[in-house]
Each structure stands twice: as structure tokens, then as C-alpha cells.
Amino acid sequence: MQAVEALLADASAGVSGVLVIKGDPGMGKSALLEYAVQTASAAYVLRGTGVETEVELPFAALHLLLRPALDRLGTLPAPQTAALRGAFGLAPMGQADKFLVGLATLSLLAELAEDRPLLVVVDDAQWVDEASAAALLFAARRLQSEGIAVLIAARDEPSFPTNGLPELRLGELGREDAESLLSAELPSELRESVLAEAGGNPLALVELSKAADQGELDIAGPLPLTDRLQAAFAGQLDRLPEPTRRILAVAAAEDSGSLSIVLTAAPTLGIPADALEPAELTGLVKVTGGVIRFRHPLLRSAAYQMISSSQRRLIHHALAGAVSGDRRAWHLALAATGPDDQVADALEESAERAGARLGYAAMATAYERSAQLSEDQRQIARRLVAAATAASEAGQFARAVALSDRAERLTGDPAMLARLARVRSAAAFSEGSSRHSARILIDGAALVAEIDPESAANMLMTASRDIWPTGDAPFTTEAASALDRLGLPADDPRPDLARGLADIYVRNLESGFPLVSDFLRRPPPEDVESQLAVSAHPVFVAGRLDLAVSLSTGLAAQCRAEGRIRLLPAVLDYLAYSQLLAGRHRDARTSAEEGLRLAYDTGDQHPATSLLAWLAAVEGDEQRCRPLAEEGLRLALRHQLPVAGLLSTWALAMLDLTQGRDQAALDRLLARPRGSSHFATRVVVDEVEAAVRLGTPECVRESLALFERWTALSGEAWALALVARCHGILHDSEEDFLRALDWHKLAPQPYEQARTQLAYGEWLRRRRRKAEARPHLRAANEAFDRLGARPWADRAAAELRASGEATPTRRRADPGSVLTAQELQVVRLAATGATNRDIAAHLLLSPRTIGQHLYKAFPKLGISSRTELARLELDRL
């Protein structure tokens, strides 16, 4: 109870939190929720319960939870209102994803908590439908300063996906507490047996002792505890009149608990209207607000299981006549004794409705059951393919593969097999096998190359993109060759793009670069998915950093505006990397950290740890750098993506450089995965510096030659500056240093420009041209200091002292440097005039949390109001 009381106290103080209560049936989870409701007398309370038969109805549980607050929908931003209305079937769903529904849930909860604390309790969460669970958990993970307490109770099986949320596991009662729950009338000779069988389970202690006392339960058998409890409840049901048992079975079969539905179905089964009364009088059920509630879920199970299967089918058929839509389809399916094309068609319609509302798990189940009720083999195969595709969309990859296996045995249709290939490819990729994923896509594309070249092209482009970080050149070439053979229209850029990327991959730069450059001159596609799938990768391969920044910035804005939250972590990764290479380190950290938080909240993986490791290395923070880099390397190893581990390798090498471990840095860089894109060539500059400092320049000449070829073809000013710096270091060439500084003026990158100024200043000082060295060293020191690159700033300061200038006073920290990444985002958006609600929608948080961030940020910035933000140089924060 202490954990619950602490959660409620925090909510009263304006701090939000969530607690998941886990335990077996009967351990007291529901009682603890009830205690919280009674304790939080001053709070607004929302209550929801997972319902087993509604687990396939998308957003059913969320609708039940939020129904009392739907009159507040109009207070939310329009996209969020539309998302919730679509999720609840009140309007078309549009293009929103399920995480926008989660954001809308967060906003609605925050709206309710504006005037007083809010308590949200969800019982039997193991029966919450997948779409509701995703939305609810997204909202719970993004709670901060709203004054909301969320309590979720769930059994261990079936599981409820609460990874990373605080958990309270209810253990068994001690002997003294257990004995206090036993029936006073229980004979002494049975007490020890009941105590042993109950295992400290409160409900079992009460119900088993009652049953044993009344001679209704044999406690000597090997039944699991849940079955024993169900048997105990069955004994209580046996004492009821036969019509009462039958109407309870009807109520158990209609899990919504609607009294009107039960009473509508009852007459068709010959059950009188007053049959429920004995169950109410004995306390087995309670009717409130037109809803029948069983005293315990196991009592409902007992009522349903104690009748025969033929009786259950009759009940479901009767209930089908009392309901409509999805519920009718499912009751008819449960009443079916064999194939029934009409019911199968109804379930297919239900599946499509579920998909339209983003309920892909429910869609998969409906299609699978529809297939089971189909007679025609082609229909069975088609519906199993649809079920597999929906399961893949829901992230249920093992289930998707199993459904694919069943479908594949029933069809030889190339189009269906190609769809199954996409399902298997997604499953393989999720398991960390990019090579296997690409192989499946290439083979699948061959199946439809003649009948559907467009689908084949999309599959091959996905394979080409996914192959790149594996380091597997033959696969890249194979995918490009297959695209060439499709005979796509002459103006389709994809074959040339794939061939260009394949050529660059195998270092045939002179033929590959023009093809990629021609593609990048085309206007990008309008939709986010196409830009991510086709445009983002070649932009980085070609090193077009200006285009990379503008493309990724636009993609992030588009994702936020359209509510494409599922795609936002990947987009933020692109944006962070663009900002990093453009020398905007603080922006890169902000984007990377937001992407990481969002990936965690959506249950996704994210590679930004490597980028954050590199920034930590530049700042000389070894304790932070190593674990981040090692996590990035583990991710690359787990997914068999050696090229993806390059940034982590570079981060560790950079850390070695900043700590004076030149040999270790060079060894790491020489052992890195080789390649000829921007990703692989950018590190050559540090490779050259380490090699020259060690007196072994010959070991990097091949890498530098490749970088020079790449730079000549790209024509990028930033790359020309770095090549010139390399030559200045290698050949002691003042002309090259000056040329590098000139190129930097055309493509400002504060960090790299400062590195060039430092290298040139060191070169001048070694030649006793101290007066000429000082301006360059001073500029480098100031730039590094501004970037927080402490080791490089210290090195520049040491060179300045050696040149005869007094040790520079460390610049007073920018006010922005004391802000957290999220505070910085909030402050910048507030300075544009955006309201707290606007900022909350942009950052996927609640308005109350935005207000709290501003409350903390203003004193750090030395201001007291939003109007004063105008005088701050926010671009430098």
C-alpha cells in the first residue's frame, strides 16, 4: 500500500507517475486498486477494465476508460481530436497512427487533471486490446508534471507489455495473515490442507475454505490453483436454480456485461427475465448502470465453462441476434460448427474495419478466423495472407511467420507469395538478420517481376537500402541488376539510383556518383515513407549535408504535423546525424535524445546511442562515451550490421584522440569496416592526424586517396576543406591549410573549422611564427569552448600559452548550456510565440509539462517571462 500511497501523494503535488501491479488471480490486485480509489477522494477518477472477449476489438478498452471524458475532446488539438474520434469509430481514422491516439490520450488526461489530481485505474490489463494497450502505455511513459497517477493491474499470463514501467509484484500472505482469512467454521483438520493448497493467495484462502467447509471441494487432487478456484466458484453456481445458471452463462458469453443485450437474448433461449435475481441476492453478480459485473473474473469463467459446448454455441447464436457489427460477427463465429461463407465474409468485413482503425492485431485474428470458416482453398489462402500481413503490421512477427507458413502451403499464386515474402522479410529484419531479410525480398521480387514490376521495384529498393549497412557488396549488385531487368519506364529513377549506390559500394565511384547525383537533383517524393525509403539514404551516401539537414528537418516537421509518430524516431535519427555533421552539436544532441525517448515510448530500437557517444567523446566524457558506444556496437552486432557500428568505433577512436592515446585511436580506425560513402570516408581525417602524430603516414595513404576521389566527385566544400587539411598535416603544407580555411568559409562547420584552425595554428607555432598562430589558436579555443569540446579547447589553450599568450579565461557558460535538451526545445519554441498547447503537440507532451519546463528554464536563463526570450540569441543556445 505504501507504493500506491506514494504515487497518490506525488499526483497531489503535481508529479505524475505510473505503477503496474502484477500477480496471480486472487492475489489482491483489484482490492489494491479499490483502495487507491477510496484513498484518492479528492481526485478525479477514471476506471477501465480489460474484457476477454473484447481483446480483438481495437480501442475497446481505451473507449471504456475515456468515455466519461469524451465531452472534453474539443479542447485538444484538431489532429488529436480526429485521432481519438477515429479510434472510437466516431469518424474516419485518416492517416493517424496509434501513437497519435496515445498522444491524444495523454492530452485528454492532462485536460482532466487541470483542476485537481487525476487517478487512472485499469484492471485486468492482460485483456486490454493491443491498440488500447499501445496508446495507454505511450501516454503513461510520457507523463511528467500533470498530477496524474496511473495504476494498472495485470496477471502474468497472458502478458501485458509494460517493459520499463515501475512494477509492484504482490507476494503470498504470511501464515498469520493467511489464517485470518480462513472461514471461522472450517474444521481444524482441514485448516492446514487449505493453507497449503492456497499458497498465501487471499482469494483462494477465502473461497477454498468455504468450499471445503461445505464439502464441495476435494483438495487432495493435483489441480492448479486457478482451476481449484474455478471449481470452488462452480460449486457456488451449482446451488443456484437452473435458469439462473443459464442466464449467468449468457452474461459470461457477452463480456460487455450489457444487461439489455443479455435480456434481449434470454427469451430466445427460454430463460425468464427474472432469472438473474438469485445470483444478485447471493452476491455473485452486481448490476449497476445497466452492466452485469461478476464478483471475480474466475466466477465468470466458471459460469461459461460449466455448460456444454453445444449450449455455448446456442448462447452465442442468440447473442448474435441481439447485437450488430463486429460483435455480431464474432458471436456468429463462436456459434459456427463448421465452414460458413456468410460468417467468414462478416469476419472479413470486421477485419477491414479493425485495420481502418489501426487495430492490426484484431485484424489478424479476424482474418485468421475467417479463413477457418471458409470453404474455398483460394479464399482460405487469401485470408491467411491478409492475417499474416496484419500480424506483421502489429509487430507480432512470430505469429506472422506461422500464418505465412500455413498460407504458403495452400497457394502458388505469385502475388500472394510476394506478399508473404514481405512479411517474412520484416520478421527476419526484426530478428536482426538484414542479409536474410534482403535475400527474401530479392527472391520475392522475382516472383512478381513480370506481373507487378512496381511491387517488385519497391521490394528491391528496400533490399538495396537494408543491405548497405551489412557490408555485403554482392547483394547490393544483385538487387541493382534485378531492378535493371524489370523494364521500368525510362523516366523511373530507381534503377539508376540502385546501380549508382551499388557502384559506390564497390568503390566504382566514377560511374556511381553521377547516377546518385542525378537522382538527388530530382524533387523528393511528397510522402514521408517514400522519402525515408528512397531519398534519405542517398543523400548521406553522397555527403550532401545541406540537403540532408533540409530534408530531415522537413521530414520531422511533416511527421509532427501529420501525427506520424511511429516514423518520428527514425526521422529524428537522420536529423541528429545531419546536425552533427553540420557542426550543430547541441541541436544534434537534442534531436538524438528526443528520438531515443520516443523510441523507448513506442517500443522501438534506435541507433542514436552511437551519435551521443561521439559527442561525449568530443567533450572528453569517457564515463558517458564508453557505455553508449558499446551499446551501439552491440546493436550493430546483434543485427549483423558492421557498417552501422562505424559511428561507435569512430566515437571510441575520438575518445582515444582526445586523451592522447594516438596508437589506440589509429588501431581502431584502421580496423573499421571499409567503404566509399560519406559514412566511411569522414573518419579518414582523424585517421590521418593519428598516423602523422605517430610517424606512420604511409598506413593511411590508401584511405586518403579514396577520400580524395570521393571528394572530387562530390564537389562538396566541407569535404574539400577536410581533404586540404589532411594534406596540410601530411605534407607540412601551409598552402593546403589556407585552402582548407577558404573552403570552410563556403560551408561553415564550427567544429571542423576549429580543428583546421587548431592544426594550422600548431603548424605556425612550431615554425616560431607565434604572432600569426595566435589568432587561429584563439578562434579555435573559443569555438571549442562554445561547443563544449573541453579536450580540444584545452589543447588550443595550451598552444596559445606556448605561443606567448596568457591562458585565456574560460568563457562564461552560455545560458543554454545549463538547460536540459527538452528545456532547450521548449524555450526555442516558446520564443516563436507558440502557446504551451502548441509546444505540447509539437513535442508530444502535455501542456502542463511544457509549463513546468519553462518554469525551470527561466531562472537558468536569467529571465522571468516569455517576452524576455526575444533578447536572447536562441540560435546559439
List the helices and strands and how they pair.
Elements: H1 2-12, E1 17-22, H2 29-39, E2 44-49, H3 60-66, H4 78-87, H5 98-112, E3 118-123, H6 130-141, E4 148-154, E5 167-169, H7 175-180, H8 188-198, H9 202-213, H10 225-238, H11 242-253, H12 259-265, H13 277-281, E6 285-288, E7 291-294, H14 297-305, H15 309-320, H16 325-335, H17 341-356, H18 360-372, H19 377-393, H20 397-408, H21 414-430, H22 434-447, H23 453-467, H24 473-485, H25 494-505, H26 509-520, H27 528-541, H28 545-562, H29 568-581, H30 585-601, H31 608-618, H32 622-638, H33 646-658, H34 662-670, H35 678-681, H36 684-694, H37 701-714, H38 717-731, H39 734-746, H40 750-766, H41 770-787, H42 790-802, H43 821-831, H44 836-843, H45 847-861
Parallel strand pairs: 1-4, 1-5, 2-3, 3-4
Antiparallel strand pairs: 6-7
Helix pairs in contact: 3-6, 4-5, 5-6, 8-9, 9-10, 10-14, 11-14, 12-15, 15-16, 16-17, 17-18, 18-19, 19-20, 19-21, 20-21, 21-22, 22-23, 22-24, 23-24, 24-25, 25-26, 26-37, 27-28, 28-29, 29-30, 30-31, 30-43, 31-32, 31-33, 32-33, 33-34, 34-36, 36-38, 37-38, 38-39, 38-40, 39-40, 40-41, 40-42, 41-42, ...
